[in-house]
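Hi W., the iron/sulfur cluster complex you wanted:
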Amino acid sequence: MRLGLAIDLDTCVGCHACAVACKEWNGQSLMGGAPDYDAWGKAPSGAWYNRIRHYEIEGDPTYSPYRCGSSSDASEHQPLSKTVNVPMSCMHCEEAHCVTVCPTGASYKRAEDGIVLVDPSRCMGCNYCSWACPYGARELDEDVGVMKKCTLCVDRIYDEQLAVEDRQPACVLACPTHARHFGDYDDPQSKVSLLAESRGKQSMLDDLGYKPTNAYLSPRKPVEIKAELPIRAGLSDKAKAFVNRLIQL
Amino acid sequence: MKPALSVIFFTVSSGAGLGLLVWLLIASLMADHIRMDGATFYKGVVIAALMITAGLLSSTLHLANRKNAIFSLVRVKTSWLSREGLLALILYPLAALHLAALHFGWPHITPFTLWLLVADAIAILYCTGMIYACLRTIPRWNTWMTPAKYVLFGLMSGSVLLPAALSLRPAEVGPIGKPMVAIVLLAVGVVFYIAYLLKHPRAQHTINDALGFKRGNVRLLDVGHSHGTFLTNEFGFVLAREKARMLRWLAIVFGFIVPMLLCYFTQWFWSASFICIAGLLVERWLFFAEAEHVVRLYHGQQRV
Ligand code: SF4
Ligand code: SF4
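Structure:
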């Protein structure tokens, strides 16, 4: 098995619900413990297994046929623009260099399902693995001096006391737009494999050779809405065109 | 990268100690020629041992969970950090064996222990360099020049310490000749350092590669956290260009040029050693402070 996530960059609205659900679940779990520091103070911080960042892609016609600004001032000079929200957690890489550099053997990749974990009873908190991770997936738990990271909710997904549909990572269950999917990439018929196949995935620092398991589904090209009136327009066409023009004001 | 003082001190101090050990052992092969008596040799070994041990102890200071450091030798197969630790631990019994052989006069094993010690010391320096050089995530370090630098600078600072240690011999032996090894290594060192500054890999990855949007401009709108995180603390260190330039010159002048002049024109070998080590501390600080991790791309930096 090669378990991992498929994260849809098209539908993610950047609400941080997955990160909050992750904190909530892992805050008390067996291998978890993602502490907060100064949570109600002036400079709140803490360890997160999942962080969402927001970017603007400017001038790439593949994903953004629309120009900045309202349609009235949209001209050739306005750059094409699109906002993407990118949640990032451990990719459970196939070539997990974070594991090979770990001197204590605390970091390991499970042969049976490919999940990368840290054994807190062996980790000496040297931070070396976090240096080896390109994706910023590892954060030190300063309270206990041990490296922490996404466990793919290993303590949920095999729990037979949970209903079958609940045996998924907390972030996947929490996502209000269903932008997160969980499954086995070794099974070509699994939901995540099919999604990655049909939607295409982003290559993220692939030249470093870590072979991340998680897939970031590329945004779809939006359908362009034409605001002009059709030639022989009926009443409903006129109404549609009117609404479209309103939207683009 | 955050320049962690404990690691900077460790690499410089242990490096110089290992270099001194190597040169002391080689010098002991021609002890008569350079008029090094037994007591001076042992004094030198004590200085080297102190520097190596102080460095190793300091390197454990940056561990967040020191009690698990006992496990740190188990991944010799894959981890350069493990390899370094193991070789460093082997150094002590090996040195004890060599000293015992010298003391009790077992001439048939001293050549073995001597060259094993030399090889082990150089291997430790190489491993330290590889700890950094093996990280593909930090392009500036990911080059053969990193381990070469660690080995060269270790042997170099050790060669400056050697005449200093020799100066501990009884006064009646007379002055020490020009330490040509040190002078040559300092010259090689400065050429190598300048070559490294000019030729190290740089700006190989862009924010476009990081997110997979190959066309167009990608820029960060919001980083998603309101205050510092582990990632910004560990990888977010920013060094002002002007300051970096000044520190580079400081490293060149104090790490190499001044010790070279002192070794050539004077007998102030202790001053030369201290100045060289101070310069190397600046160099090592820069080594960390100037290195950029690719995770900075996700925090909005355009190129790493
Ligand atoms: S994303 Fe980072 S922590 Fe996770 S497996 Fe890959 S290298 Fe390791
Ligand atoms: S911080 Fe812990 S898990 Fe990471 S490399 Fe060090 S010992 Fe291994």
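The radius of gyration of chain A is 22 Å.

W.
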